[in-house]
């Protein structure tokens, strides 16, 4: 599938969703979630531009998948669904410390992309849920090209944590759209 083939069904689903919708994009590392999220944001089908939250900015280190899921649920999606102030805290990968908080405007649509965004309970907190997959060899090549040797040392641990998440949460079953990148 080319990029327009991936983007079109997502934009159609968003156009049919509430004006202030929440879009979650999940899938394994290297599948193309960030690229798809950027395209969705750029081509958003309504006049109100969405906010974008990337879980890569939230994971507290290489073993932070579950912590980021909890942070996303408790600090962003649940408060936003209740009409309360929502925010996320960036993790500074260089210092390996929590950094600044960023508010999430509850009056704008929201895109969240990253491994772990389709956790159990995400259905009640979102309007459009995308599962994006790709072949394992392609994913690994993309991820290591993007993140270099730093990620190579952590690939096996990340993949193990990802596999546990998939077994526990079955995220692809929560998707309203399933796509496969080529």
UniProtKB/TrEMBL annotation:
For molecular function, the Gene Ontology terms on record are:
kinase activity
Per its UniProt record, what Gene3D superfamilies does this chain match?
A: P-loop containing nucleotide triphosphate hydrolases (3.40.50.300)
Q: Report whether Kinase shows up as a keyword of the record.
A: yes
- Tell me which InterPro entries the record gives: P-loop_NTPase
Could you tell me the keywords of this UniProt record?
Answer: Kinase, Transferase
Its name, as the record gives it, is: Uridine kinase
